[in-house]
Amino acid sequence: DWTPASFVHETIEQLKKQIGDAHVIMALSGGVDSTVAATLISRAIGDRLHGIFVDNGVLRKDEFEQVLATYQQLGLNVKGVNAKQLFYNELKGKTDPEAKRKTIGKLFIDVFQQEAEQIKEAKFLGQGTIYPDVIESVSVHGPSVTIKSHHNVGGLPEKMHLSLVEPLRLLFKDEVRKVGLELGIPTDMINRHPFPGPGLAIRILGEITEEKVQLLQAADHIYIQGLKDNNLYTQVWQAGAILLPVKSVGVMGDERTYEFTVALRAVTSVDGMTADWAHLPYEFLANMSNEIINNVRGINRVVYDISSKPPATIEWE
Ligand code: XMP
């Protein structure tokens, strides 16, 4: 019967056989799946795994540095690539959600490919594909096609003559988490909420600027930290802040303000296909509103999204 320990043991043996003395390249996202997959591969082949983690400019506050530190702690051979300005430049003037997604997906492949080409010994491409992704990629309905688009490095395997290594292909999410714990991956990493590939770019409605990213990062950070401090983080499936393209009037001291609104979102869900808005305590929401408005200059109004999916979606774009 299946246990995390037996899975880890058997998978490492299989990976050793499959990979031999070749090298593997892999795009890491900071998410649970790619981290667990990379750790397994690394246990099998050590530094012949070459991880690449791209800062696309629309990660959460301090996420790039923190995730890289965790990779280091896990002994993974990972290169962090700061490509922020490239992404900001290309996103300039784009307001359509799908155009933003396409831009980010394409740039990501460009950056990854450039890095991958420098690793000439690579014969394999590692991926954190899990069982639900396998099913999703053969179903044709709706937005599920775009899910994980940032992991999907397009025609890259064929183009670079790479074979796939996907050690989690038969696992469900809860099993991936158990395997991760077995591998000694920190619980903070294991319990992370899902985060979309296009990141904060689809949580800034309309055009993206570096200033707006910083504004949203600051508000989102207060909210996520608040959820953690109040033991609410693991009770919701996904949470985040959304920067709305509306300014409204407020008052601060004797002055009138005219600033942005942030929407807070938190949902409970099993798989993201359907979701209920999370009934967070009023007092918590009141604290978050105060903390955000008092600490983030440029935001003078906070609202809470009470829409469920369907008919709403989890993301606003
Ligand atoms: P929606 O908004 O469709 O989101 O209810 C369902 C889940 O999918 C995530 N999501 C994405 N993930 N690329 C991704 O990697 C995307 O373009 C994308 N759009 C939505 C969303 O965060 C939620 O977990």
UniProtKB/TrEMBL annotation:
Instruction: Indicate what this protein is called per its UniProt record.
Output: GMP synthase [glutamine-hydrolyzing]
User: What is its EC class?
Assistant: ligase
User: Does the keyword Nucleotide-binding feature in the UniProt annotation?
Assistant: yes
Q: Which organism is it from?
A: Deminuibacter soli
MF-aspect GO terms: ATP binding; GMP synthase activity
The UniProt subunit note reads as follows: Homodimer.
What's the stated role of this polypeptide? Answer: Catalyzes the synthesis of GMP from XMP.
The protein's annotated catalytic reaction(s) are: XMP + L-glutamine + ATP + H2O = GMP + L-glutamate + AMP + diphosphate + 2 H(+)
Q: Which pathway, per its entry? A: Purine metabolism; GMP biosynthesis; GMP from XMP (L-Gln route): step 1/1
From-to range in the entire protein, with total length: 195 to 511 of 511
- Residues where ATP binds: S29, G30, G31, V32, D33, S34, T35
**Every GMPS ATP-PPase domain range:** 2-192
The gene designation is: guaA
Q: Which UniProt keywords apply?
A: ATP-binding, Glutamine amidotransferase, GMP biosynthesis, Ligase, Nucleotide-binding, Purine biosynthesis
Please provide, in alphabetical order, the Gene Ontology terms of the cellular component aspect for this entry: cytosol
Instruction: Write down the EC number.
Output: 6.3.5.2
